[in-house]
Amino acid sequence: MFDEADHQAFRKRLREETKHLKRWFDERAFEETDAFTVGLEIEAWLIDRNCLPTPNADEFIATANDERVVPELSKFNFELNADPRSLADDCFSSIAADIDRLWERCRRAGETLGMHPLTIGMLPTVRDEMLQPAWMSGGNRYKALNQSLLAARQSEPLHISISGRDTLDYRCDHIMLEAACTSLQAHLKVNQDDAARLYNASVLASAPLVAACANSPFLYGQSLWAETRIPAFEQSTKVHGFPDAAGRRVLRVTLGTSYLRRSMLELFLENLSYPAILPTMLESTDTLAHLRLHNGTIWRWNRPILDFGPDGTPHLRIEQRVMPSGPTVADMVANLALYYGLALALGRAEIPPETETPFEDARANFYACARDGLDARVRWAGTESGVDELLLDQLLPAARAALGEQGVEEPCLVRFFDDVLQPRIANRQNGTNWQRRFYDANGRNFQALTERYAELQVTGEPVHTWPL
How far apart are CA 1 and CA 288, in angstroms? Predict the structure, then answer.
């Protein structure tokens, strides 16, 4: 419970810490390195033998007994964290092997308890009665977020309205729909001087990335967007915000308001315009704990991260959040490779691509690709094309070349670009398109769809090879 005094004290501390952060930018206090460090988080589901969510994450996490397997918003979600590593050599094969081992540990833990872990953006079998506060994880943070977001809305119910092949229109008084939006989150540690260009590149890359990776077409029995996570997450956390230059109300889940001009500091300054929803006063002041807590409640699709190394030196990261979870480890690592390659290719281009593709085009591209997937039309550098053509003709080769220049080994690039990404896009079978083809062939049997998806996921074969 928070009162006005809590909010006033928190806002005061937040302003002080933001001034402190500005000094760090002025003094160039952040870690600098010639290498890039990457990391990731994978959110996943727990399902029972009927392919329905099972609210036993605490027991599952205890059985898995690995510090990299942690709780999430709901009792049927959990999260995996892979160890950071350098963006070089055989890094992607190493990431795949690491996740495979951790996933096998999770699979055995689930088998012991009569449940099954599953990576999929939105579970086709989830029902509204399961996305209720009673299924929320026990941590105070989630309960406080739920209460504070609704208080910020003056108890006005959330209105979820998504139109795709079908239309979903309903209201709720909680944030649990967010638990249905499981993602693959990529982290990229950046130097201060490179951060603005790489952040803008990440924003630009969001559209083709979400088209290539889409894996969330169904919610509550309705066929909606190719990546329904995007509108569902935005609307399930909607709080009346400040207006951007175009007069739109800026949400807490957003692609942003513009490209960065000079530095990532601009995003932390913009954070001051968002009301605090977890105004918790913390004892620590030297690590900018309140600034970091507040930033963690603003879910930009490309989020700035301030963190610290083992010696206490601050560093900056970009957290790319548009990718869904699943379908397989091979698919997810290929998606990571595509993101990192695009970030480097676009962020280091001789002519900054953000000068050729206005932010409004990047924004329109993002929502078109989230809605239409590989069928989307996009406007890139003043030219309109299908996003599949853009990926195959320009972006995949550029991303592959950028990673090669960074020192990623050729067998790694062959494995994830030539053997996964290129045929997935050429065959037009990402996770969403496979699910829709199964649906079209078998009707509205979401249990059968999920059973078949789970069977094929266990094989480890990438989704573009999946039969119905």
Answer: 23
